[in-house]
Design brief:
The protein is α+β, with helices and mostly antiparallel strands. 22% of the residues lie in helices and 38% in strands. It has a 4-stranded antiparallel β-sheet, with helices on one face. The chain has a 3-stranded antiparallel β-sheet with strand order 1-6-5. A 3-stranded antiparallel β-sheet has the order 2-3-4, with helices on one face. β5 and β6 form a beta hairpin. The longest helix is centred in the middle third of the chain and has 22 residues. It starts with a helix and ends in a 17-residue tail after the last strand.
């Protein structure tokens, strides 16, 4: 049995939760998140908590109810507090700007990159090189951050590119350039 799945999810005062079968909708001050889970889990609201349990004794249902509980806890946290990731652009002439619901990136290519910002995500640009991606859905915040980073990941020689704030040695390996004899 899952140790995580057994723990109930506490619901803060500001958050409203609606459970219809295996679909859970969480509405809070930071936004609204909704997800549908596999029918092998039973989701119930008791008092000020949500309890998740497997419906059958299969290996899949035992695995899924811990996962469902973790995802629901993330949804509650996202609706109450929100999630945020910060990106930083390094390189001469590299910059970003907001144009309505699109992010305009100048990353040294011959063309501008226009990235559509999905509903429920807020992007703020400061100094032209620092981006902050915020939203209630943890998965969507991570996906948008990853898509923006994928346009120009940090390169190993000069370190130019789009990187997460605090991302250095473990993910961006630096190499020594050519040496002339």
């Amino acid at each position: 049995m899952s140790r995580i799945g057994k723990q109930p999810v506490q619901i803060p005062d500001k958050v409203k939760i609606d459970i219809k079968g295996t679909t859970v909708s969480v509405d809070g001050p930071k936004g609204k998140v909704s997800k549908t889970f596999a029918p092998v889990v039973k989701i119930e609201k008791k008092d000020n908590t949500i309890v998740v349990a497997p419906t059958e004794e299969t290996r899949f249902s035992k695995a899924m109810y811990g996962t469902a509980r973790s995802v629901i806890a993330g949804m509650v946290k996202g609706a109450a507090v929100g999630y945020a990731k910060e990106l930083e652009i390094q390189g001469v002439g590299f910059k970003a700007a907001l144009k309505g619901k699109q992010l305009d990136l100048s990353l040294g290519y011959s063309h501008q990159i226009l990235h559509d910002i999905p509903e429920g995500i807020k992007v703020t640009v400061t100094d032209g090189t620092k981006l902050k991606v915020e939203g209630a859905d943890k998965q969507l915040v991570g996906q948008v951050t990853s898509e923006i980073r994928a346009y120009y990941p940090p390169e190993p020689y000069k370190g130019k590119g789009v990187r997460l704030v605090g991302e250095f040695a473990e993910r961006v390996r630096r190499k020594e350039g050519k040496t002339v004899a």
